[in-house]
Specification:
5 helices, eight-stranded mixed sheet, alpha+beta
């Protein structure tokens, strides 16, 4: 018992030297704000508190980021929200994310492919609620792209002619 107690003290002693705020185990709450460019809707909310996601907030996000063409909803990957939150911190903005597209239903995705608008993948992560096309009014688009790329947390697409950055939770890649 003495050996175990001594071992525990040795392991804990470096933590005791840290300032109190550095020892906090749970991150603070995380919030996001959105404005949808197609529907005009806005949403601001706390989506996570500490280590836990707020279930009611995630349901509101799912509704907000629905396929605006069909009204269909799908669960949005909370890791995508975490990427957006980190982007806000990196860029130092408090502006709302302007959403161009998030979840897309299979029917919408097929329709967009037939229209030949370009950039619509057959197995798009938009179909899984794991992708979003965004911009920030007060952050130059190239800076937003660079900040997203620095996360190394998924795919980042740069569409300067259409004025948005694609962000997803797939494998790390860029285009």
């Amino acid at each position: 018992r003495r050996l175990l107690a001594a071992g525990a003290m040795l392991l804990a002693s470096p933590l005791l030297a840290l300032p109190r705020h550095a020892r906090a185990s749970a991150p603070s709450s995380r919030a996001l704000s959105f404005r949808h460019t197609h529907t005009g809707e806005t949403l601001s909310l706390v989506y996570a508190a500490g280590d836990a996601y707020v279930t009611a907030a995630l349901a509101r996000v799912n509704r907000f980021l629905r396929d605006f063409r069909s009204g269909e909803e799908r669960a949005i990957d909370p890791q995508l929200l975490d990427q957006l939150h980190t982007l806000r911190e990196i860029t130092g903005t408090r502006a709302a994310f302007e959403v161009i597209s998030a979840y897309r239903s299979p029917a919408t995705n097929e329709k967009l492919q037939r229209q030949g608008g370009g950039g619509v993948a057959t197995r798009s992560l938009h179909l899984e609620g794991r992708a979003i096309d965004i911009r920030l009014a007060d952050v130059p688009l190239a800076d937003l792209r660079d900040a997203a790329t620095s996360l190394r947390a998924g795919g980042v697409g740069f569409y300067p002619q259409s004025q948005f950055v694609h962000l997803d939770t797939g494998r790390v890649r860029r285009w």
